[in-house]
Each structure stands twice: as structure tokens, then as C-alpha cells.
Design a protein that fits this description.
The chain has 210 residues and is mainly alpha-helical. The chain has a single domain, classed as Four Helix Bundle (Hemerythrin (Met), subunit A) (Up-down Bundle). The chain contains 4 helices and no strands. The longest helix is centred in the first third of the chain and has 78 residues. It starts with 12 loop residues before the first helix and ends with a helix.
């Protein structure tokens, strides 16, 4: 807040008035300039802090996604075996014991974070950043959201499929196998979607971190 005080001595003539007015004007301009400089420095600090946090979050998510990639390949291989087994059983044929193992139905995906990005968005700090950089960050988090949506769909498939196989694995009838097949096919589709979206997400991570 800026304060303007009355002159200590009376104003005598136009010259005194002009000098006093000029003094006030210069003082206000200096004060406004200092205030703007302090605000600009504060915004610059916020921007740098937000950029650092977002970059670190993307780096952490990149590591999680790369760590998940080996597990995802195993999940796809396991679901392939489950799907093939259900197709054989639905045709009324028998499977050799141990064709499908418990680990073939494992689903483990590490969580990815977006708190730094959401905080920067909600506080308006993104407006202080370079537009092109914000676009790269936005693209990375958009791909990440799509990947996590696909993960949720795959998890739901597993939650519906696992109880059916667990309770009827030893005496699986063709009818029961046919009922389970759509869940297995959906799971395979969503796992494949996770793989391809994951590749795209890694690409947007790399672009955002340049």
C-alpha cells in the first residue's frame, strides 16, 4: 500500500506546486517500480520452484513406468496363457495340470504422481512459465492420465476374472470357461493398450525433460 503525505510546509506559487507534484510523481513511480520488481522476483521464484518440482515428478514417474515395463510384459504373457486355456476349456477339451499357474494372474503396477502439476495448475503458477514448456508438461500428464485409465480398466478385468478361475479352476466346465472368456479378452486388450500408451508416455516424458 502506498501512502502520500501532505507537504510539511505550505506551497507558495506555481513553482513550489510543480516541484511538490514532481516529487510525489517520482516517488510513486519508484515505489510502483520496486513493488513490481518484488512481485516479478516472487513470480520468478514460484516458476523455478514449480518447474523443478514438475520435472522431478516426471523423472520419478518415468522411473516407475520403466520399472513397470518388465512386469507388464509378464502380465501380457500370463494373460495369453489364461486366454488360450479358456478357449481350450470352452471347446470341451482338457488341459494338462499346471498349464495355468497362479503367477499368470498377477497384476502389479506402480502408482504415478501428478501432485506437482495439479498444484502448479490450481495456483496459477503455470501462467508464469514459457508456453512451449507448459505444452510439453501438459502432453506428458495427458498421456499419463490415459495410461492410468487403461490400468484401471485392466484391474477391473482382473477383479472379475480371478474369482471365476480361483473357484472353478479344478472343475472348469465349458460353460464357465465361456463366461470367463470375455473378461480375459478384455484384460488382454487393456494390457496391450497399456503397453502402447506406455511407450507414448515415455516419449512425452523424454520430450518434457529436454
Amino acid at each position: 500500500m502506498l501512502d502520500v503525505h501532505a507537504p510539511e510546509h505550505g506551497i507558495h506559487g506555481v513553482r513550489d506546486f510543480a516541484i511538490h507534484l514532481l516529487t510525489i510523481t517520482v516517488g510513486l513511480l519508484i515505489a510502483l517500480g520496486l513493488e513490481a520488481s518484488v512481485e516479478a522476483m516472487h513470480h520468478r521464484h514460484q516458476r523455478k520452484e514449480a518447474e523443478a518440482m514438475i520435472r522431478q515428478e516426471i523423472q520419478d514417474n518415468r522411473k516407475v513406468l520403466m520399472d513397470n515395463s518388465a512386469g507388464l510384459k509378464a502380465e501380457i504373457a500370463g494373460m495369453t496363457k489364461v486366454l488360450e486355456a479358456l478357449e481350450v476349456l470352452s471347446a470341451g477339451q482338457k488341459l494338462p495340470e499346471g498349464t495355468v499357474k497362479e503367477e499368470d494372474l498377477q497384476f502389479r503396477e506402480g502408482p504415478m504422481q501428478d501432485s506437482a502439476w495439479r498444484t502448479a495448475s490450481s495456483t496459477g503458477v503455470l501462467s508464469y512459465m514459457d508456453y512451449a514448456e507448459v505444452e510439453k508438461f501438459s502432453g506428458a500428464y495427458k498421456e499419463q492420465d490415459q495410461l492410468q485409465t487403461m490400468e484401471e480398466l485392466a484391474l477391473n478385468d482382473y477383479l472379475q476374472l480371478v474369482p471365476v478361475l480361483a473357484h472353478h479352476s479344478k472343475d472348469m466346465t465349458p460353460e464357465r470357461a465361456k463366461d470367463a472368456l470375455p473378461f480375459a479378452r478384455n484384460a488382454m486388450g487393456h494390457l496391450s493398450g497399456m503397453y502402447f500408451i506406455g511407450v507414448g508416455t515415455l516419449g512425452t516424458y523424454e520430450e518434457a525433460l529436454k
